[in-house]
Amino acid sequence: MAAPPVQPVPPAAAAAAVNGDGFRLGFVGAGNLAESIARGVAASGVLPASAIRTAPHRQPRARRGFRVLRRVLAPNQCPVKQILLELRPRLSEEKLLVSIAAGIKMQDLQDWSGQRRIIRVMPNTPSAVGQAASVMCLGEMATQDDENRVRKLFSAIGKVWTAEEKYFDAVTGLSGSGPAYIFLAIEAMADGGVAAGLPRDLALGLASQTVLGAATMVSQTGKHPGQLKDQVTSPAGTTIAGIQELEKGAFRGTLISAVVAAAKRCRELS
C-alpha cells in the first residue's frame, strides 16, 4: 500500500533548511528534465547555481550558468547501465545517488552502481517554474536524513509524494508524461479560439490561464473535478454543448488511454 501523500514544504522553509547543509547537487546527463530541475532549484534559492554541477552530453547546455563536471562518457554512451558502471569506481557510501531515470528499477540501480544509498524520484518538467509533481521512494540504505534532504530539495520546486516503487510506471505515465498532454490541450484550445475568431495571442493567453486556474481550483478547494465541472455547466448552456462535443470525441477515454500507454512504455523500458 502506498504511503500517504507528503505535504510539501513551503519553498522559503525548504531554502532555509537546505542552504545550511552545504551540499552540492550533481547531474550526470543534462537533459530536459535535469535542466528543468536545476533551473528550478537555482531559481527557488534552495541552492546557488555554483553548487549545481552537470555532466552534459549536449554541449550547449553546459554554457547556461551551471558549473560543469568533466565528461564521464562519450556523447554516444548514454544508457543508464553504462553510465553507472563507469561511475561505480568513483561512487562511495558518502554519496547519495538520486535517480530520475524513467523505468529503471531500484534493484538495477543498485546492481550497476554498487550503491545502496539510493532514492528514486519521478519529477516532471514544471520543475523549471516551481510547479513540479514529484514522487519518491527510498532504497534499502537511504537514511531518514537522505529522505528529508531530497524531499526538501524537490519541495522547493513543487509538490512531493511518496509511493512504493511498484507504482512508478503509472506515475511516469501520469505526471511524468502528463505535461505534454496538457500542452497539447492548451494548444488545441487556443486553436479553437482562433477558429472562433480570436487573435492568436489572446487565444493562447486565455487557454493557458484557464488551465492554470482550473488546476488551482482542484488543488486548493479539495473538490472533485466532476463537482467543479458541474458548477460551470448550466442546463442547455454553452459549456454542456462543448462537453457534448468532447464526449463525442472520447476525450476522457483518450486521456485515460494515453496515461496507460505511457505507463506500458515505461515498463518496456525497464
Task: Briefly summarize what is shown.
The protein has 270 residues and is α/β, with parallel strands linked by helices. It is built from 11 helices and 7 strands.
Describe this structure in words.
- Helices cover 51% and strands 11% of the residues.
- It folds into two domains: 11-168, Rossmann fold (3-Layer(aba) Sandwich), CATH 3.40.50; 178-269, Orthogonal Bundle (ProC C-terminal domain-like fold), CATH 1.10.3730.
- The longest helix is centred in the C-terminal third of the chain and has 22 residues, at 200-221.
- With 270 residues, it is an alpha/beta fold.
- It is elongated, with a radius of gyration of 21 Å.
- The strands form two sheets. The chain has a four-stranded mixed β-sheet, with helices on both faces. Strands 1-2-3 form a three-stranded parallel β-sheet, with helices on one face.
- It has helices at 11-19, 32-44, 80-87, 106-113, 144-155, 168-176, 178-195, 200-221, 225-232, 238-248, 251-269, and strands at 25-28, 52-55, 67-68, 97-99, 118-122, 132-138, 158-162.
- α4 (106-113) links the parallel β4 and β5 (118-122).
- The relative contact order is 0.11.
- α1 packs across α5 (144-155) and α6 (168-176) crosses α11.
Low-confidence stretches: 1-20, 57-77
Estimate nothing, just give the exact number of structural domains: 2
> Helix/strand/pairing class, anyone?
alpha/beta
Adjacency order of strands in the biggest sheet? 4-5-6-7
Q: Any idea what the CATH architecture of the largest domain is?
A: 3-Layer(aba) Sandwich
Total strand count, please?
7
Reading off the top of the CATH hierarchy, the class of the largest domain is best stated as Alpha Beta
CATH level 3 topology of the largest domain: Rossmann fold
Individual helix count: 11
Tell me, rounded to a whole number, the average pLDDT. Answer: 83
Q: What is the global morphology? A: elongated
- Radius of gyration, taken over Cα atoms and rounded to an integer in Å: 21 Å
Q: SSE string, helix = H, strand = E? A: HEHEEHEHEEHEHHHHHH
Helical proportion?
A: 40-55%
Largest sheet: 4 strands, mixed
Strand content: 5-15%
* CATH homology group of the largest domain: NAD(P)-binding Rossmann-like Domain
